[in-house]
Amino acid sequence: MDSLAHKWRAEQQQWRVQGLSRSLESLDRVGGEGLRFRDAEGRELLSFASNDYLALSGHPELRRAAVAELGHSGVGAGAAPLLGGERPVHAALAKALAAWLGEEAVLLFGSGYLANLGLVQALVGRKDRLYADRLNHASLVDAARLSGASLQRYRHGDPEDLARRLRQGGGGRAWILSDGVFSMDGDIAPLPELLDLARQYDAVLILDEAHAFGVLGEGGRGSLAHFAIEQPGPLLRMGTLGKAFGVYGAFVAGPQWLVDVLRQRARSFIYHTALPPALAAASLAALTLLRGAEAERRHLHALRRRLREALPQGPWLPSESPIQALLLRDNGRALAMSARLREAGFYCPAVRPPTVPAHSARLRITLSAGHGTAEVDALALALQSALAVS
Length: 390
Ligand code: PMP
Hints:
14 strands, acyltransferase, pyridoxal phosphate binding, seven-stranded mixed sheet, pyridoxal phosphate, binds 4'-deoxy-4'-aminopyridoxal-5'-phosphate, EC 2.3.1.47, PyrdxlP-dep_Trfase_small, Aspartate Aminotransferase, domain 2
């Protein structure tokens, strides 16, 4: 053990020197809702880091639904879904999610990470071919590795590179894996082109809508609605309940056969404890609010445009989502910017490798419908002065 501890202490020191060390910080929520938090030094910070895009995580309706279900079902589900952990509220949530998306069926998972692992592992065989966008979320990358299939990573958001690779062909079935909205850049996947290629090469597209559901398209129905695609063809979708829904958990949506297969084969589904029923109840309440939140979505997208217009010369990455990234490249610079923003009262963390590719450290700003225009203006001013000195 001593040599192991020595090795990892030395490694930790290296990470510190390179500006790559990660620390875990508790932020205490101020007032139980909204986006204000207090750090360990007692400083109040307005968060621009949360994926709570519609500010639902503290919403009174979600609280009421969760508390009512707590009174009825208790805290934990107590078992795996297939071994007695499934409650009526889980089934009601799955049914409501499927109806919202116009899909035949939905299967709930404990988290988005588990959903991606289970979906890919259950369907993709060792002899198949996976084509994955280079900037996909880590859970899709891990899922691809777990499947044992051959994996090619195509250039980010580049259907031509994907087409070139698909043309080369190979054995087994072809699968395309992509985020709908990329979690660290915020740009939207070229869905019409990906679906065309899937049709052309008899492939299936697995789309991770973690940052798209609730945020994009009419009714918050995500990337398909954003592009007004009505007949998507070979598409399977995954969504999370921990972002725009403001809760926790995830789901896979698609035809009935898909849910039947996942129930039978997805190991991360079969062997996990069912979602706490109170969270399923809160998610159900969130879905009702989220479907009708057109004004909030308009506000959110107006905030995005406002931020960019206030700082037109910033090193922004292209993005039409609430995820707005300032590409600083250098780890130290990203950390310094984040520290300056904290001094100005904003929580806006630096994202560094390996979460993003080497030399692409950035400030990842996420906007929420819970932010006001004056708050976004104040952030833009703080960013401007921090950029000038960092
Ligand atoms: N996919 C994407 C694109 C994500 O950003 C995340 C969360 N960061 C996940 C999947 C994992 O979801 P969860 O947090 O529910 O495990």
